[in-house]
Structure to design on (107 residues):
């Protein structure tokens, strides 16, 4: 079952890379593109391996993603604050999933 999840993540990452690099004009904003790819792979990994993550792994991944998302308007352009807000909203929803997962396992 572990191999299946690893293969799923590789296929997802490859499909995501092909999708984003085929978009016209995506090369003008390399940092934003890299953040979106990293965030999408992290999000897919979170939901794929949610039951096996430790709190330390989750918190470090959450902090790293939050940091790179917050830096998008600083590195690229201040017009990217909407993208940052949307990504931070999605990232904060993982907090809800994490809480629900661990509140059910405590019972």
């Amino acid at each position: 079952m572990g191999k299946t999840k690893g293969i799923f993540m590789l296929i997802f990452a490859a499909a995501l890379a092909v999708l984003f690099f085929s978009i016209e004009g995506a090369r003008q904003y390399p940092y934003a593109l890299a953040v979106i790819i990293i965030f999408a792979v992290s999000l897919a990994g979170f939901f794929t391996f949610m039951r096996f993550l430790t709190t330390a792994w989750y918190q470090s991944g959450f902090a790293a993603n939050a940091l790179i998302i917050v830096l998008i308007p600083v590195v690229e352009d201040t017009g990217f604050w909407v993208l940052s807000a949307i990504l931070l909203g999605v990232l904060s929803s993982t907090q809800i999933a994490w809480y629900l997962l661990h509140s059910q396992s405590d019972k």
Summary: The chain has a mean pLDDT of 84. The first helix runs from residue 2 to 21.
